[in-house]
Amino acid sequence: MNKSEKLICLVLGLVLAVYIFSSMRDAKKARESAAEQVAAAQTAAPVTLPARPAEAKPVETAPKASVSVPNVPEKTVVLENGELKLVLSSWGAVVKNATLKEYARKRGAVSESNPALVFDYSSAPLGTLEGVAGLAPNAAYEVRTLTSNAVVFVNAAATRTYTLQPGYRVELEETFRTAPAGRTTLSLGSMAMGASKNDLLSVDSWAMDAKGGAVVHHDDDDSPLKSYLAGSSLGCSGGGNAAGLPASTQIAYPGTQKWVALKDRFFVTALVASSATNSGFEATVSRDTQAATYRPERLSARAVFENAGNSRTSTFYVGPKKQALLWDMGMKDVMEFGMWRWVCYPLVWVLNVFNDWIPSYGVAVILLTILVRLLFWPLTHKSTVGMKKMQEIQPLMKELQAKYKDNPKRLQQETWQLYKERKVNPMSSCLPMLVQIPVFIALFNVLRAAVELRYAGFLWIPDLSEPEGLFASWFPFGGLNILPILMAATMALQSALTPSTGDKSQQRMMMVIMPVMMLVMFYSFPSALSLYWTVSQILSIVQMWLIRRASEKAAVRPSVEVIDPPQTRQMRRHGKAE
Hints:
With 578 residues, the protein is of the alpha+beta class.
């Protein structure tokens, strides 16, 4: 490649690197501290304080009844299907916890020694109703009807019916003796804050969908909550002086919302409010009041209703972030694929199709890689042939550079004329990379957050959703990750086989810098990403070998080609050649 091509490729590479690093920032610190935050989470519901005056929006609320413990015994009931188990309480007619029966807490099948994952809503129970005059959030209800998948809670003020639908849906029907006046809220539950690892559940972002557009807020992003707390980090690692900060703070997201969700890397709790009176939702973040520096502990959310009427129906989703299930709920943007979602959706579908054919997500990733490489095969072929042609005209390029070294404008004109005569496109080596960047970013988004890859092993890899981490007890850097090393080696080999039109020393430098940079980037990435990139590089090497072999066969046939010097070509263009 010439200097301009190298510059373009370097810029594209940097853009890709910046995107990846920005998406994965603070991941290691977040995961390390997630366990601490789960253990330190307060058992009581966070105290809600008003937002700062500039954002505060006073609302009329019904007087709250006492929240003391009811003087009747609590009765817990269980609703269960093949995927989900709910434990509900007669105090408040709420969901205390939800067990995802098909997802083990640790690697391996669900068993007595390896229990299933549990969403613990004890801090702020899912389905908590507030704002109804004379009805406390934890008011006692009578269990009137109970089946394996439905329960009816009744008291003097309201009837609340929970129905566990097939899969991960929970439908809540509410009927009030007297229509609530003013503002009422329905809790989405709460989760510990911070990016979670496979064996922990802790929210790293929350999302909403208003007027057809989903908006995602991250706990470590520049959100209104972060601004409120004097610029303190809402990341799991915390930061900032906690002096003078409230124990908790609340911010409202007004306007009709189609759905709201608390989610982490693989799982989500969401609420789809079918009632047209839905008036937005609120998020409350509470901090560790015992810490000297600000560290968020829990995030809770509630849907807000204004003058809701005598009845309403809401649907909760408590389960994995599976594309097909979320699409059925109208919540596809919970997956958070960003601007490349149009590429991500088919990639997820194809990945699952391959796994249905051959029940191994490692094999599915390899087959997906092969498919992507085949789709880009013509572009890569054109790029490699273009670089080969650029290499062949280097002697003429050097002549032009020597002749017009004092006339840059003329040199540029002659160079482009040479490209035209030789049918060479100087951008042909970088354009294929430009086209492939959206696909790689889409694959990056898909593979890092695919719940299907959670604890999915392949060959020596114990978990495709995490780095390999072999010999972690004594090997530095969190364990030995073989795939990133193989990937770096294949990149160096590919660079050596790539036709070069520039300085040999620069090529050798690039052979070292790029593989090392990618090795550092990918060392902490999920194994599935390293597997994809390694297989992709191997296929690229095979393609280069095939192109080189075809070129060598063509060169065996004798041919004579006369290359005119620049002066003769110039005279011919002006009609002066004899």
